[in-house]
Amino acid sequence: MKSIVSFFKKIRNVNNKSTDRRNKKELISSKLAVNLNRIKEIFVYPKNQDFKIRKISIRSINRVGVILYLNGMVDSKKVEEHIIKPLQEEPCNDEKLTNIDLINKVINVSITDEIDAFQEIKKKILDGRTVLLVDGSRKAIFMDTVGFSHRNVEKPTAETVVKGPKESFSESTQVNRSLIRKQLRNEKLITEIMSVGESSPLDISMMYIDDIASPDLVKKIKKRVQDIKADVVQNIAILEQHLEERPYSLVPTILYTERPDRVAAFLQEGHVVLVDNSPAALVLPVTFWSFFQTAEDMYQRWAYGNFIRLIRLLALLTTLLAPAAYIAMTNFHENLLPTDLLLAIAATRENVPFPVIIEVLLMEISFELIREAGIRIPNTIGPTIGIVGALLIGQAAVDANVISPIIVIIIALNGLSSFAIPNTSLNYMIRIMKFIFSFSAYLFGYLGISISLTVTLSYLASIKSFDVPFLSPLSPYYPSSGDTIIRPPVWKQWLRPLNIYPQDKQRKEKVEGDDSND
Fold first, then answer.
1. Is the pLDDT of residue 222 over 70?
2. DSSP codes joined into one string, 106-142
3. 220 near 467, Cβ under 8 Å?
4. Over the stretch 456-488, which tens digit does the pLDDT of each residue have?
5. Radius of gyration of the chain measured on its C-alpha atoms
């Protein structure tokens, strides 16, 4: 027993030493050769052929320098024309010039600064910057020469709208931030950059409006990001899983969106947004209504937008309850059906050898397989395979007396309804929960459905997203503009939702004579 304890103590000591070694700041030497050897060791040069080292003679200070960068991550034209060429051609012959003087007088790059540690050099080079080491200087100069390849701004693929902006995020942090600022031109919009990951740091941009977002909320999210202990956080989708408070829950508590206009709307309410070089952003905290609503709800006129929401609510309930209701009705509550319909269902099921739960499971699993296959196969044949596959499987199964025709109708309606659920995470949650409701209905009928609904609503009411109740501002009640299941006209939405504790509670002055605050 003692040997086992001592073994684990040794492992913990080794881990602590490696962590201390990582966190220890290794300063740059004044000798160029020493610094260059250390950099070569960090980037495994010359084995790593993407790592470029260019020795230059800096005429303005009569010294030797070294340009360091990763090929493919920098704008090579900018490096050549705005850094190397001025350094080699600009005569000054003043050896007393400091690095700051060199930055201000010679280098023609917008963002430059000094760093004094090898860890900082490594991070800047991995971020796509160019680093200049000068012989005799204990500080290096980094220059913003980022030249990552990324897509142009394109249309959203998952959150499409008929009326409204047609721009989505791209694989560039700078582009993503500019798209948000294009939608929200507010001088109080703050961007704070944080690094996540030990061996391969990822820069995360946290954005919020300084005079609206709650300082406690900003502080909590910042601490949560800084407390992430991971070797690599590849992108914003992985970061979402590190930040969520209930990783084993089916219920999502962070919104993943690809629309800058939607992000801008959340920022104006007091939410915080996380952006990186991914084609999406994270919004937090969020409530159930954030997943239920879409951007187009606000762009359409009041009646049209609410009509869409009611259709979407019907689709959500149909996806969740339609198979379970059919199972409960045929197994336990036949007297609720009209006699003619009951006899028609009984006639179609006369030759089917399986109980109704097996029929439902067979068709539900088949539909999920077709849906997944339609996503994975090439785009040119995806829709064809999906439609033909569904028709052939359904018709063949009915002809073979494996399932009854009414099951095909119910599952088809159920599948169409699931496509109307706007958010991907909410869509997955509802599709998984419909299996739980189906089993409950098979065991206990409508009593099982009632129990499952009660448990689900109780669980949703207990969840919080960064201390914000998931069903608020409806339950528990908070004053707001009432933008939940249906929305009021835009000129009545003068009050920000108080469930996220915004500093500025009103969007504008209250409309005279309007006493509604819910």
1. yes
2. T---SSEEEE-BHHHHHHHHHTT-EEEEETT-S-EEE
3. yes
4. 999 999 999 999 999 999 888 888 888 888 899
5. 30
